[in-house]
Write a structure and sequence with these properties.
The chain is 65% helix and 0% strand. Helix 1 runs parallel beside helix 7, helix 3 runs antiparallel to helix 4 and helix 3 runs antiparallel to helix 5. It contains 7 helices and no strands. The chain is mostly helical.
Length: 179
C-alpha cells in the first residue's frame, strides 16, 4: 500500500482523541456481570440502545444488531428503543463512528469468554475474521485520502459521539437495573 501523509494519521488521531471516552465505556460496561441471564441481558440491552442508532448512521458492512436481537430474544428480553444520535451528512463523522463500532468487535472477542455456556453469544461472537480489521483500517485510510485536518476532526467527533452513546446507554441501563 502506498503510504500518504494522512495514511495512519487518521487512525492515530482517532485512537488518541478517544482514549478517555473508550476507557469510560470500558469502565461502565465492566460493571455488568456476564454470568447471569439478568445481568447479561442488561449488558445486551445497553449495547442495543447504542448499536441501533450507530449502525443506522454508520452503515457497517457487517451489522451486528440482528445478532444482538437474537441473543435478547433467547433471554426472553425485548429489543429496547435506541438512543438518539446527532444526524449528519459528514462522511468523516460516519467513518469515525464506524471506527468505534468496528473496534468494539475486537472487545467482543475478549468479552465472549466471560459468558458461560448456556447463554447466547451471537452478538459477542461477531468478531472480525482474519484480516478484516486491517482491511477496515485500509478503507479508513482510503476514505481520508486527499482530505485534511478538518476531515480528521469530523472523524474524531464521530468516534467521540459513538463512545458517548455507548456510555449513556450503559449508565442508563445500570440506573434502570439498580435503581
Amino acid at each position: 500500500m502506498k503510504r500518504t501523509p494522512i495514511a495512519g494519521r487518521v487512525r492515530q488521531a482517532l485512537r488518541e482523541a478517544t482514549m478517555a471516552g473508550h476507557q469510560r465505556v470500558d469502565d461502565l460496561f465492566s460493571r455488568f456481570a456476564l454470568d447471569t441471564p439478568e445481568s447479561y441481558g442488561a449488558f445486551l440491552k445497553a449495547h442495543a440502545r447504542a448499536l441501533a442508532p450507530l449502525e443506522a448512521m454508520a452503515r457497517p458492512g457487517a451489522a451486528r444488531l440482528p445478532k444482538l436481537a437474537q441473543d435478547l430474544a433467547a433471554l426472553g428480553e425485548p429489543m429496547p428503543e435506541g438512543l438518539s444520535i446527532h444526524e449528519t451528512d459528514s462522511d468523516a463523522f460516519r467513518w469515525g463512528a464506524l471506527y468505534a463500532l468496528e473496534g468494539s468487535r475486537l472487545g467482543g472477542s475478549v468479552l465472549v469468554r466471560r459468558v458461560p455456556d448456556g447463554l447466547p453469544r451471537a452478538y459477542l461472537s461477531a468478531v472480525h475474521g482474519k484480516g478484516e480489521w486491517q482491511a477496515f483500517q485500509r478503507s479508513l485510510d482510503a476514505a481520508a485520502e486527499g482530505e485534511g485536518d478538518d476531515w480528521i476532526g469530523e472523524a474524531v467527533q464521530g468516534a467521540e459521539a459513538a463512545f458517548a452513546l455507548f456510555a449513556a446507554a450503559a449508565s442508563g441501563e445500570q440506573a434502570m437495573t439498580h435503581g
